[in-house]
Amino acid sequence: MAIKISNNSFYIETKNTSYQIKADKYGILKHVWYGEKTGCDMDYINEYPDVGFSGNIYDAGNDRTYSPDTLPQEYPAFGNGDYRICAVSAVHNDGSCSLDLRFKKYEIKQGKYSIPGLPAVYSGENAQTLEITLEDKKSGLEVILKYGVLPELDVITRSAVIRNNSESPVTIKNAASFCIDMPKDNYESIFFTGRHAMERTPQRQAILQGIQESSSVRGTSSHQQNPSFIICSPDCNEDNGRCFGAALMYSGSFSTRIELDHVGQLRAVCGINPELFSWQLNSGEEFYTPEAILAFSANGLAALSHIFHTVIRNNVCRGNYKLAQRPVLINNWEATYFDFNEEKLLKIAREAAKLGVDMFVLDDGWFGKRDSDFSGLGDWYANTNKLENGLSGLADKINALGMKFGLWFEPEMVSEDSDLYRSHPDWAIVIPGRKPIRGRYQLVLDMTRSDVRDYLFDTISSILKNANISYIKWDMNRSITECYSKAFPKEQQGEVMHRYILGVYDLYERLINEFPKILFESCSSGGGRFDPGMLYYAPQAWASDDSDAIERLKIQYGTSMVYPISSIGAHVSEIVNQQVFRNTPIETRANVAYFGAFGYELDLNELTELEKQKVKEQVEFIKQYRELIHKGKFYRLQSPFENNITAWMVVSDDKKEAIVGWYKVLNDVNESFKRIKLKGLNENLNYYIEQKGEYHYGDELMNLGMITSDYAVGDP
Ligand code: GLA
Questions:
Q1: What is the Å distance from ligand 1's center to 535 Cα?
Q2: Using the 8-state DSSP alphabet, how is residue 616 labeled?
Q3: pLDDT at 716
Q4: Cα–Cα distances in angstroms (integers) from residue 636 to residues 237, 241, 564, 594, 633, in the given order
Q5: Between 549-559 and 586-593, two packed helices, what is the crossing angle to 10 degrees?
Q6: Pocket test for ligand 1, best of 366, 374, 475 (most atoms within 8 A of CB)
Q7: Strand partners for 178
Q8: What are the b/e assignments for 284-315, b being 16+ CB within 10 Å?
Q9: Cβ distance 232 to 205 under 8 Å?
Q10: Whole-angstrom Cα distance, residue 247 to residue 157?
Q11: Confidence (pLDDT) at 711
């Protein structure tokens, strides 16, 4: 049994971890432990100090040592003597905002819970759900904490349901997905930060007293911060050390806050961003928070990544393509931008077909009046000036070449210069009487409205039914500014950000159910919505608009900390690179893009015959090894953030095969050879190193390493 209970203490076990919770003598739900597997009751690590000016609950009488302000808790509420960041706060009908949550009951259910309207980890053989109900007796508000226990995957998921059992409405101001309290120790945080075209750079820092925050208010999970984070010991590296990781399954405005409190304990709270959020919960209604995936490793970051990779690939991603081999695609965006016609596209497709590419993807510019990014969004019908035979005509010709056909959409957007906007100006998110903020000259459609979603579903469905389309790239190219919807009264405007993303999930769900054979790839100006929530609907995401191979080393390295290689859209693009104007050989570009969902994004006709031959070999290579690369264990060997060399590798589950990616950015002069120590091999297996024609045992390759470079000798 993964969940045991004794005297209101809850002991959860996964393969390598224990999680302990206790409802104490006052009914306060204490967090006791999350870490290495242990048979002990870990409550001994909690001291009860008398800390001056910390509040004491009334029931504790004159015992000044019992204070919510120092107590590790599972789901701390605002207004009850805990001055640290809280997980939940609510304003009652009388205007007061205190919640005194006490243990009411628990229930264990077989199987993993799901969440209406929100993405959640599914299945898990032997999965169980623990539900602990807390109650604020005065108001009747209940919080049901849900713990999904997936023992084999070594994962615990968390989410909460807030239920209003009172007669009057309550306004929820904050409803985190989880809180985790950690005992006094030294900790560091790793957030995944960045900007457009440089996403998910690991940013590691010491945690000192006070609050650190990683968050988004953009309506997307964002390029700037990612809804996943790690807390680790200062000595933690890829192979050693304790680390806790969390990945929030949410694609909207989120917040992760980490506080080192006044007695040196650490608290992390993560969920919907309370800024811009409030939710009117009427009598009898429930509110569901998004889910978070939690994992712990006592053996460093690589082991933590492996847990996340496995659960996201197998138990978050869905559909026919979650484990199927992903098509090698060619996308026309960087090759043509908006300037194309059928013949120009077919010319690229013909060359791609000759070189073995599986699928041709038509990007932005095929619809309405869309010759630049000033117009056309929302008018999802083919522009016959560019495509004289329409989408079905083009798709048929691509299919006749032996390739599948894929198409770009940006469903959530509208251009002011579009038929859609002219007929439905009220569908755009704007504040009446104010000039809207534009982003890439466009406005955001109000996805909270079912009529908007119905229009999008009908329009997109009819295109998918009338042309043979096997793939959709679903883009989202601006953030939300005016968080306002005409569909809701003023009391409910705080719900709009969250309702927007619920609307996006709803449309995705309808489309993937209607078209189960289509592969969806998500995108938000590159990697602006790369999160586990999106991966529940689309198993791969375009990782970044920066397609330069050297820049991609950093982006893919950072992304791999949490996200599986199969989810990372990566293309060989043209040189001179269009973002950083660098020239890299076609081999380097492919060698980096292999470690992702692989494709091309250039005009193959402009390559030399030799380069085309290389592309052909690359396509053969990736078709042979994509299964291994996507399903194997990924190890980061050398960080692009530390020096001139980046290295990583994948190893098959049976450890019989491995592929190493080794990248030297600048050449060294008069430097002798370099060695790289491999990881994850079977020490007793004799491996054949293809490039060298040599055999070496796994222990040699891991302990001493493999020589990677030939001598680079410069003239004296
Ligand atoms: C975004 C995407 C690109 C491309 C363009 C099209 O920037 O990230 O890959 O699809 O939009 O406008």
A1: 18
A2: H
A3: 34
A4: 11, 16, 13, 15, 10
A5: 10
A6: 475
A7: 270
A8: eeebbbbbbbbbbbbbbbbbbbbbbbbbbbbb
A9: no
A10: 9
A11: 43
DSSP state of 45: G
Q: How many CA atoms lie within 13 A of 391 on its CB side?
A: 26
Check residue 710 and give its pLDDT: 55
Please give the Cα distance from 387 to 379 (Å, whole number): 15
Asked about 199 being catalytic, the answer comes back as no
Mean pLDDT, the chain, whole residue set: 96
Tell me if the bond preceding 713 is cis, omega within 30° of 0: no
Residue 671, CA distances (Å) to 167, 214, 295, 667 in order? 77, 42, 42, 9
Distance 521 CA to ligand 1 centre (A): 12
Degrees to nearest 5, angle at CA 609 with 606 and 612: 75
Q: How many residues does the chain have?
A: 716
Cα distance between residue 676 and residue 658, in whole Å: 14
Q: How far is the CA of 390 from the centre of ligand 1 (A)?
A: 22
Residue 552's alpha-carbon distances to 63, 330, 338, 545, 572, in angstroms, are 57, 18, 24, 10, 11
d(CA 364, CA 332): 9
User: What residues does 250 pair with on adjacent strands?
Assistant: none
Provide the total of helices (H) and of strands (E) in the chain, helices listed first: 12, 37
Ligand 1 pocket: which residues have CB below 6 Å?
333, 363-364, 408, 475, 477, 523, 525-526, 542, 545
pTM for the whole thing?
Answer: 0.98
CB atoms within 10 A of CB 493: 15
CA 483 to chain centre: 23
Examine the residue annotation and report whether 611 is marked as an active-site residue of this protein.
yes
- Asked if residue 363 has pLDDT above 70, the reply is yes
Candidate of 361, 363, 522 to mutate for ligand 1, largest count of ligand atoms within 8 Å of Cβ: 363
